[in-house]
Amino acid sequence: MVSGILIAGLVLILIASEMILRGGVGLARQFDISPLYTGIFVLSVLTVMPELFVTYRAAAMGHTGMALGGIIGSNLFDLLFVIGLGALIHPLASPPKVLFRDGTALLAGCAGLVVCALEGAVSRQAGAALLAIFAAYLVILVLTDWRRASDHSVPLARALRRSHGEIPSLAASFFFLVLGVIVLGLGAHLSVIGGIHVATELGWSETTVGLMMIAFGLSSPKLFTTLVVAVRGEGAVVVGQILGACAFNLLAVLGLVALIHPMAIPEQLRHADIFVLAIASLILLPLLAMHWRLSRPRGVLLMIAYGCYLGFLLWRQGLPLPWEL
Q: Torsion angle of alpha carbons 208, 213, 214, 217, nearest 10°?
């Protein structure tokens, strides 16, 4: 029953994510917003709405371990497992522009989080600084993709692919968007409540639940999208989408939530997981830069690295590893 609440919340988040994206893209097309701006300001922003809602709800309820664990765990899952799985399905192209632009934004977010870890909290000042970096990142996104073909612009390619098909009416698009936001709010609330009860029932810390269970639920929409895109062989879209989403999480989501609810960083995150995320990001970018593509063997290595991280989380929680049984 307790775990059912968490599962229900995560399922609602998955459903709401699709509804919000459908409604947002529909409104953008109804108001004749260019595909580039749809990709940057509609798709990119709406993609991280689950992280924003869950992080805000958990922080507002005083469960900062779950709030921060969800974001950090979601980014690690995306960078290691999702990209690794995409490469296993089909080697992923990683254009230099995507790596230098979106990868730099990701590293900037990781650096900001490391500074916050050293200070012990994500303060309002830190939140404002992260949002300032995010604003600069948005400007660079627009300038670097201005008048580029979809083959060279991840936001534009995503918008064109997402907009393919029948255009929903204005009323239907608005309905999807509003209903999606409502369902997402309910899903976020149930996820946090369910996560709290699961942590109590299993005797785990809320931070661990956030890093594992909440993180998987938040990343599931991007996981399914990546599977579809990787099968089509659109590797550049996969890499750009994941790097951009992770940068949005650390800069926009964390910055906005911290501006409203400053968060103390739990000891577990301060001493390990934040640095694991930073190191994983630093290692991933050179792997993507090798021949400007991520091969299947390197994708498998990323997935193994994520499996090792999960093993570390379980060991830290007190569960024995296989060779200790």
A: 160
Give me the pLDDT at residue 84, please: 92
For the four alpha carbons of 84, 86, 79 and 224, in that order, the dihedral sign comes to negative
Contact of 122 with 253, CB cutoff 8 Å: no
DSSP-based three-state secondary structure for 264: strand
pLDDT at 325 over 50: no
Domain count, the chain: 1
Task: Tell me the CATH number at 108.
Answer: 1.20.1420.30
At 24-35, the pLDDT tens digits run 888 877 777 777
Residue 57 in domain: yes
Contact 51/218 with Cβ under 8 angstroms?
Answer: yes
Q: DSSP assignment, residue 251?
A: I
How far apart are the C-alpha atoms of 246 and 279, rounded to whole Å?
14
Residue 324: CB atoms within 10 Å: 7
Average pLDDT, the chain: 85
User: Rounded to whole angstroms, how far apart are CA atoms 45 and 1?
Assistant: 33
Residue positions counted in the chain: 325
Close Cβ partners of 134 (under 8 Å, ≥ 6 residues apart)? 248, 251, 252, 255
Pick the closest to residue 239 from 106, 43, 148, 49 (CA basis): 106
The DSSP annotation for 189-228 comes to HHHHHHHHHHHHHHT--HHHHIIIIIHHHHHHHHHHHHHH
Please tell me the predicted confidence (pLDDT) of residue 202: 81
Domain containing 160 equals 2-317
Query: Is residue 324 a part of any domain in this protein?
Result: no
Q: What is the pLDDT of residues 246-295, one digit of tens each?
A: 999 999 999 999 999 999 999 889 989 999 999 999 999 999 988 888 89
